[in-house]
Amino acid sequence: MSSQTADDHVFKALAHPRRRELLDRLKDAPQTTGMLCEAFPDIDRCTVMLHLKVLEEAELVVAKREGRERWNHLNALPIKHIHDRWISQYAGHALSIIDRLKSDLEG
Description:
Structural class: alpha+beta
Shape: elongated
Mean pLDDT: 91
Number of helices: 5
């Protein structure tokens, strides 16, 4: 998968608030699909599974089967790649603009 395609998958996955909530739940420790379903009683298991599938396709979640349980693990590397490629680059530019504006206002 090309870097651009991978980035597109990550942005698509992060675009939905429920998927971001799922990632937040996986941040501290892996959870089974059943545990994640219990955390979201307002949606059915099928919907949780669909969200997990999108997260897996973006490589944000790695699922491992242990016996009858499916454990979902956060993979933060795609988020780090987005940060390194986009956020840090533009944050530095924005900070330099703010610094120049401050200098102009004080000058």
